[in-house]
Design a protein that fits this description.
Helices cover 40% and strands 15% of the residues. It is α+β, with helices and mostly antiparallel strands. The protein folds into 2 domains: 9-187, no CATH class; 199-351, Oxidoreductase, molybdopterin-binding domain (Sulfite Oxidase, Chain A, domain 2, Alpha-Beta Complex). The strands form 2 sheets. The protein has a 5-stranded mixed sheet with strand order 2-1-10-5-6. Strands 3, 4, 7, 8 and 9 form a 5-stranded antiparallel sheet that branches. Strand 1 and strand 2 (234-236) form a beta hairpin. The chain is elongated. The model is unreliable at 1-17 (pLDDT under 50). Residues 217-351 form the Oxidoreductase molybdopterin-binding domain. GO terms for molecular function: oxidoreductase activity.
């Protein structure tokens, strides 16, 4: 495929950087591969569009779950919803990279065309919506109609190229998905945390030492306080908290990095504490940590979550007392929440 110049010789000679334009025109004629075609670009563009959209939407979900606006009430069920959406987000991002490189290679000759009207060209470079709208006709023509006429060799070379790009994208998924999908954990060489490696078999992102609480959590005068808009304020020692009805449930910790790990958690249901303190059903709770230096030293727990029987103030993990790095003496564990909002080293619950 030989690209035609968008400007005349006279324009080249009179334009700023005319020598550069001449060089560009000479180079552009060298792109002769049939794979530099509209049809290949369209097919890769569709794949890239789907991949990018999935990563973008799941990224928005992650953002709004961590920083929910006042009007949004995120559900507590299904339990693994955030685990799936964040896993797809982190896995889908790397999978998009080979598709992007493949698309750039296919349309690469276009990058050597000198724009006759530079100011409009630069404006349109960032107009993704305009680009997608403009490409829609090409998608219909190349994928959903029989208008394209091609030689016998073109389908084979196109399929080989598209297959190579798809294989590269699939490989990135294969070496990432194990951080969420346990049977493939040994292949997760791109995972930021090794599944199953950590205190009590569960990875951690922030240790007690890093949080600056390693001394405070050992104080014998520790108390969990429930205060604010309550009928009866509570101030419970660890022994008193352990004396309340204990429940055990298996829930995942799902990190924004994409990895997740399931564990058995034992502790007190948050709604049992709320009932004991006389909290109204639609109240909002803020669970506060002993940690003071992190933006996630507290987390908001809204009614759909704290009323859920799977939302705990956990004292044990997998049958053992919480390791300091897992939030000893008390941590929040709830279904369908990002790991950064599963507050560790809990010392107070403020109700409003």
């Amino acid at each position: 495929m030989v690209l035609e110049s968008a400007v005349t010789d006279a324009q080249v000679r009179g334009a700023p950087g005319g020598a550069v334009i001449t060089l560009v025109q000479g180079v552009s004629g060298r792109f002769t591969s049939r794979l530099h075609s509209e049809r290949v670009a369209v097919q890769l563009g569709v794949w890239l569009g789907v991949s990018f959209t999935v990563a973008f939407v799941t990224g928005l979900i992650s953002h709004f779950m961590q920083h929910p606006p006042a009007w949004m009430l995120w559900p507590s069920r299904p339990v693994n919803l955030y685990r799936v959406t964040q896993g797809v987000h982190v896995i889908g991002g790397p999978a998009t990279i080979p598709l992007l490189f493949g698309k750039l290679w296919t349309v690469y000759p276009k990058l050597w065309q000198w724009p006759p009207f530079r100011w409009t060209s630069y404006v349109l470079y960032g107009a993704l919506v305009i680009h997608v709208t403009n490409e829609w006709a090409k998608v219909r023509r190349n994928l959903w109609t029989a208008e394209c006429v091609e030689t016998q060799e073109e389908p084979r070379s196109r399929r080989r190229f598209l297959g190579t790009v798809a294989a590269a994208s699939g490989l990135t998924v294969l070496v990432t998905v194990g951080e969420t999908f346990a049977p493939l954990s040994k292949l997760a060489v791109l995972a930021p945390r090794a599944p199953g490696v950590g205190p009590q078999g569960v990875p951690v992102n922030r240790t007690a030492v890093a949080a600056g609480v390693s001394q405070m959590i050992r104080r014998p005068d520790f108390r969990l306080v429930v205060t604010g808009a309550v009928r009866s304020e509570l101030s419970l020692t660890l022994t008193e908290l352990s004396g309340m009805p204990q429940h055990t449930v298996r829930l995942p910790i799902s990190c924004v990095e994409g990895w997740s790990a399931e564990a058995g958690w034992t502790g007190v249901r948050l709604r049992d504490l709320a009932e004991r303190a006389g909290v109204v059903p639609d109240a909002v709770m803020v669970v506060e940590s002993l940690e003071r230096s992190s933006i996630y030293r507290s987390s908001e727990v809204r009614a759909p979550h704290w009323n859920d029987p799977l939302t705990f103030l956990a004292l044990r993990i997998n049958g053992s007392v919480l390791d300091p790095d897992h939030g000893y003496p008390v941590r929040l564990i709830a279904p369908d929440r990002p790991g950064v909002l599963q507050t560790k080293w809990v010392t107070r619950v403020m109700v409003s």
